[in-house]
Design a protein that fits this description.
48% of the residues lie in helices and 18% in strands. The chain has 817 residues and is an alpha+beta fold. It comes from Rhabdobacter roseus.
Length: 817
């Protein structure tokens, strides 16, 4: 029986090649898009779930308030918090503390290796997290000062060893940066999984910090520079524990008496750290959770639209198959047998589409991987990604439900025809069936219009961020990393000044400056800043940027009042520096009525007074997601940091070679590395740009699939009205009037879809735009343009069939009468 069903299904699909092809194309496109999107979603949702006891691990987050205003919403907090919480609350099973070591230079013999991320971690780290050691003892590897654990990639890169030789590295020594006291290798770590929000290449024992940073790294309640993770005991309610933290704050901080701020603590689940982090000083790899879920919604829309196409086209062919049903019923076929027959066609077509989609997904996978730079594969959907093997079962269940959903209604509608009315020729299409098909078309185009509006808004916002004036000029700016392996001494400032001066002697280099901080990066904070002589004794929080006297000129940042830095404002001994510059936002925050009023005034921070010598215009230090920061600028120097060079774009290779030669002449032994400022700054928009590209591609695909369905449906509907068109032409109807007649009903459906889609699109895009401090307006014309585009697509889809029918010779259409 099943064999017979399949044989007839194949014959019917082959007989109706156009409709089968349209259905197959739509299903293949929908399933392929879903398989690609689901790989991405599964990868993003799987972050940190490989960790043992991941559901019990939380990180401590910290909000700081001054004068009732939130001044820090961050993942960093005080060194003592994790240990003290573990001692105070029996609900906590374990804790670990880490500090950010940032980028380092590893020195081995005469070679220097760059490592982009080092963490200082306590002795609990390797037992707390699931980062297995391939060599060394995890219980003792990070106990002693200057203990160093390398990932296996770094072990191979530095020593050239094979995995079987990792144990021979234990006890060997390496040098880090300018530190001439060796670090002893105590462990080789398995490379960190790509789905860990903590990404690093080396670990150094936390005890090392005591000797380099001081005792405060263990006992300070005032310096906020550490990250803490807690593991709760099984069955503990994290929210109930979190409700005890206000008492913790009052006990140790006594309001704002200890740290100068009111401290509030919260627990963030480890599994949410990657996708739901809107925190400052983020130490991990993060993404936008809303964007990931949006992609999943788009995938669902695409697949629904494809399955709706099948329903529409299958039920639209009801008249054509009515006689088949009538004959089968007269021959004794039951309704159950007929439904099985029609469901078998749905299953066959969907399985064929799934097979083709799997092949296309594998073929297109490298393109997607190159686009988003993430290790995607179909294995993420069969056990390696989010949910493990359960994900494969869920997807299989969704596919089965989709096949049943798309096949059941056509099967039920076709198998319920009355054989007497069919065979007498009195059968007519059900008004209820027509209403269902119209509703499904409206749903398809509602989803399409929402996606079109979303695409417009995303690209307009991205274009706005790219084109909006930042308040400084980053074009044609070459940035060279500072000489981290050069010792600082009393001659360092003169060496840096001479280096810049010789560079600017070249006509291709127009300006040069040095800074410790980089535009586009998160700036450090300065707390408890006060205006000397003001009545208000409450301290303020400002961002801090360390620059030289040429920085504002190099980046063309305007001076509003006072003067720029002079060479005499800097000193190798930082304790002798007393002059600072602030921006307009900082001047306003400090209570000065206009920028000029701040010049010559004194402010205090870091335990001493400083003279304000100038005020510069506000500029966007970070992307337009963030508001403009109040910043104070100090004229310190460092061998680290960056050199910014304003260069001519002609003969770039020669300019780079000249800079490299000078750099090696002044800072021998340091690696020469560089990048361009515009590329670096625009990396802040990388995730948004990627989101825009992906949503655009798949939104266009959704519109294409919906149009395929409308094309097939209009084609069949117009075919059913062929004789009517012939009669109208004989009676004198023009081609234009016939096209308008045939298109009118479909355009009504699209107009209804536009009306439904507009408020949905407005709500969704407004929620997305709310994430940006500076954003475009939701203008009415965007929605009007999206609606017009949807109408145009529908007209093009329907008009082809309508015009062909209207131009047909009426003799042919009426010949059978």
């Amino acid at each position: 029986m099943i064999r017979n069903y399949l044989k007839i299904a194949v014959r019917n699909l082959w007989k109706n090649k156009v409709f089968s092809g349209v259905n197959l194309l739509g299903l293949v496109a929908g399933l392929t898009a879903c398989l690609l999107i689901l790989q991405y979603v599964s990868f993003e949702l799987s972050f940190d779930r490989f960790q043992r006891d991941a559901d019990r691990i939380y990180r401590v987050t910290n909000d700081r308030f001054q004068q009732g205003k939130l001044i820090q919403h961050g993942t960093i907090t005080y060194p003592t918090v994790g240990k003290t919480m573990a001692n105070d609350y029996q609900e906590i099973d374990a804790y670990t503390t880490l500090a950010n070591g940032g980028s380092i230079k590893i020195r081995h013999e005469k070679q220097v290796f760059q490592e982009d991320q080092l963490f200082y971690v306590d002795e609990h780290f390797l037992a707390f997290f699931t980062f297995p050691l391939l060599a060394g003892n995890p219980r003792t590897a990070l106990n002693a000062p200057r203990s160093l654990v390398l990932t296996e990639s770094n072990a191979q890169r530095i020593f050239g060893v094979k995995p079987t030789d990792y144990a021979t590295l234990i006890g060997r020594s390496l040098l880090i940066d300018l530190d001439n006291e060796p670090y002893q290798i105590t462990g080789i770590l398995e490379d960190v999984p790509a789905t860990s929000h903590l990404q690093f290449g080396a670990l150094v024992s936390y005890e090392t910090l005591v000797g380099t940073w001081g005792e405060w790294v263990k006992n300070s309640w005032e310096s906020s520079d550490m990250w803490h993770y807690l593991k709760l005991k099984p069955g503990v309610d994290a929210l109930a524990l979190e409700r005890k933290f206000p008492a913790f704050s009052e006990r140790y901080f006594q309001g704002d008496k200890v740290s100068g701020s009111v401290e509030k603590f919260y627990l963030q689940p480890l599994t949410e750290a990657h996708l739901y982090s809107d925190y400052e000083y983020e130490i991990g790899v993060v993404n936008n959770g809303k964007a990931v879920w949006t992609m999943l919604i788009i995938a669902a829309f695409i697949l629904l639209i494809a399955w709706i196409n099948y329903i529409n086209l299958a039920t639209a062919r009801s008249l054509e198959r009515a006689k088949e049903v009538g004959v089968r019923k007269v021959a004794g076929a039951t309704m159950q047998q007929l439904m099985s027959q029609f469901l078998s066609e749905s299953v066959l077509l969907n399985l064929l589409a799934l097979g083709i989609a799997l092949g296309l997904a594998v073929t297109l996978e490298p393109v997607l991987v190159a686009l988003i730079e993430k290790p995607l594969s179909l294995a993420l959907l069969t056990g390696a990604g989010y949910g493990g093997s359960l994900m494969a079962l869920v997807l299989a269940g969704v596919f089965v439900l989709g096949v049943v959903f798309s096949g059941f209604y056509p099967a039920f509608a076709l198998s319920s025809f009355q054989p007497i009315s069919v065979l007498k020729g009195t059968f007519k299409r059900s008004e209820k069936g027509i209403w269902v098909r119209k509703s499904l078309v409206v749903f398809q185009y509602t989803a399409s219009v929402v996606l079109i509006v979303g695409t417009f808004i995303v690209f307009r916002q991205l274009e706005y961020m790219r084109s909006e004036k930042l308040g400084f000029n980053l074009d044609q700016t070459l940035v060279v990393s500072g000489p981290a392996l050069t010792e600082w001494d009393s001659t360092s400032i003169d060496r840096i000044s001479t280096f810049k001066g010789e560079l600017t002697q070249y006509p291709a280099i127009k300006a040069a400056s040095a800074s410790i901080n980089l535009l586009g990066n998160r700036l450090p904070r300065t707390f408890n800043v006060k205006r000397v002589g003001a009545n208000d004794e409450k301290g303020l929080t400002l961002s801090r940027m360390v620059i030289d006297l040429d920085f504002f000129d190099t980046y063309q940042i305007d001076l509003l009042a006072g003067r720029n830095f002079l060479s005499t404002d800097s000193d190798p001994d930082g304790r002798k520096i007393k002059n600072i510059i602030i921006n307009a936002s900082a001047a306003a925050l400090l209570g000065f009525e206009e920028p000029g009023a701040a010049v010559g005034q004194k402010i205090s921070f870091m335990g001493r007074e400083w003279d304000v010598v100038g005020v510069v215009r506000d500029f966007h230090q970070q992307s337009l997601r963030h508001p403009i920061e109040p910043i104070l600028f100090a004229p310190f120097y460092s061998n680290g940091g960056y050199y910014s060079l304003k260069i001519a774009t002609t003969d770039l290779n020669r300019t780079l070679e000249l800079v490299k030669q000078k750099y090696q002449q002044f800072f021998p032994g340091n690696n020469f590395s560089y990048f361009f400022m515009d590329e670096q700054f625009n990396r802040q928009y990388k995730d948004d740009q990627l989101f825009g590209k992906i949503t655009t591609a798949f939104s266009l695909l959704a519109v294409l699939i919906a149009s395929l369905g409308l094309f097939g449906l209009s084609s069949y509907t117009i075919t059913q009205r062929t004789k009517e068109i012939g009669v109208r032409k004989v009676l004198g109807a023009s081609v234009g009037s016939i096209v308008a007649l045939l298109s009118r009903d479909f355009l009504k459906l699209v107009l209804v879809a536009i009306l439904l889609a507009t408020p949905l699109a407005w709500y969704a895009t407004k929620r997305w735009l709310d994430e940006f401090a500076y954003k475009i307006d939701l203008s009415w014309w965007i929605f009007a343009l999206a609606g017009t585009l949807a109408i145009a697509i529908a007209l093009l889809t329907v008009s082809f069939q309508s015009i062909r029918a209207a131009l047909m010779n009426p003799v042919k259409s009426l010949r059978s009468e």
